[in-house]
Write a structure and sequence with these properties.
two-stranded antiparallel sheet; alpha/beta; 18% strand; 2 domains; single chain; Rossmann fold; Arc Repressor Mutant, subunit A; 46% helix
């Protein structure tokens, strides 16, 4: 297993491999070839083999990869031993959907707090997660040892929220707001733009 820092896209694909492999293993299958993984994820077998070689794992010509071993190795690379805590900022339709979808999906990543400025949402439980007023965000993040935050607030509030999260000690941000963010180099930022994704799909549909 490798200890070196992996490229962003490799880590992203490893997560996809693990998700596909968990489903595959649950069906009672114990070995898999690179072309089978590739078919499930609509990528090339060459890419699969490169990624798996990069993490120091190899299969056999006769049986391919041991599914359980590969799942465990990917877990050791992506996960931390004690797990990491997540906060969601903005409990509108999107924020609640994210919390509901993610609930119980991973044992090493847990959403433990939500924040909103709407007093009608504060002190309520969403998908098993307590919602606090946004004014308490810094204190709760520090008390709970939260390291990752999801921003799902309107664009006009995103920059202020991100700055507060960084000040609170957050080291990773997933930005679902339409406002691009700038964060310090020690904070890992992932941005998701629904419009861009739909325009990308529209382009390829147009060309079909």
């Amino acid at each position: 297993m490798t200890n070196k820092k992996l490229p962003d896209k490799t880590v992203e694909r490893l997560s996809m491999y693990r998700r596909a492999l968990l489903t595959y293993h649950a069906s009672g299958k114990h070995h898999i070839f690179s072309h089978e993984i590739a078919n499930m994820l609509h990528i090339t077998p060459v890419q699969v083999r490169r990624d798996i070689m990069l993490i120091g794992y190899t299969g056999t010509l006769r049986q391919g990869y041991d599914v359980k071993e590969l799942i465990d190795i990917i877990g050791k690379i992506i996960d931390t031993r004690d797990g990491q805590k997540i906060a969601v900022v903005g409990i509108g339709n999107l924020g609640r959907s994210i919390m509901g979808y993610f609930s119980g999906k991973r044992t090493k990543l847990t959403i433990v707090a939500a924040f909103d400025s709407n007093s009608e949402k504060v002190d309520k439980i969403y998908a098993g997660v307590p919602c606090y007023h946004i004014d308490r965000m810094v204190d709760i993040i520090r008390e709970e040892g939260i390291s990752i935050a999801v921003i799902s607030v309107p664009g006009e509030f995103a920059v202020e929220v991100a700055e507060t999260l960084v000040m609170a000690g957050i080291r990773g941000i997933f930005n679902f707001s339409p406002k691009p963010l700038n964060v310090p180099s020690h904070v890992y930022l992932q941005e998701y733009d629904v419009i861009t994704m739909l325009e990308k799909i529209a382009y390829f549909v147009k060309k079909a």
